[in-house]
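Morning, I've got a small favour to ask if you have a moment. It would help a lot if you went through both lines with me. I owe you a coffee for this, so here goes:
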Amino acid sequence: MKNILVPVGSSKNAKSHLQYAVDFARATGAKLFVVQVYNFYTKAGTMIKIDHILERESKAFLEHHVSQIDHKGVEVVTKTFKGKLIDTINLISKAFDIDMIILEPRTNSIKDEVYLGKTSGRIIKQTNIPALIVPEDYVFKPIDSVLFALKSAVIKREEALKPLKSIQNSFNAKVDLLLVKTPFYNDEDFIVSSELESIITNITKSENPTTYQGVLENYKASNPDMLCVVRRKRGFFKKLWEKNIMLKKDFHVSEFPVLVLSGLK
């Protein structure tokens, strides 16, 4: 893993989130791009643009937060960009050859009942960048085990596994595969390719209405340090595709990081 993107918002968790990102980057040998995206504005009742003010304040905000964390030898680059959030995130990802984006669950939301806020939810929903969602105030620790939950083991894009492989290699982590048989099951869904088989330690099979319910039923037995799921239009984050906000009461495995891979097909 070479380049990691960290969008920063105004949450009270921003400092601890940045420290986690630095610690994770150090463990994986990556460079960190810490960014803030602001939109275009015109002062009400005038034609005076205030972009330069927003740019200055945004840059100062980033520098302040970055100065408060221990870099631990990690190269940290701060950048501010103006534009629409998703379009800009996608452009940044291409420009800096980003391998993964590390997200706070609530970049701007202040509601305690919210697990995944509107900004982070939009990034997960509307981009195809591999993402690591890190719980609030979560302190970095080595990743010894990963639970990889799938409803289909069919892999047509082997490069989609790169973030998981990188984490496995960096931490020498074991990867437990959970195959969930849903009502939409096809016989080939449980055929594990040699590519996938080479990175997994154990396979568990479960029959549930959704992948999410399969995870709820099985994750405690695995006791993972990280959950890995695949970004599908109607997949693990089904509720998220209906709304950009996800509540904690709808997501009961929010105590450890969740790695969201780009689609395997």
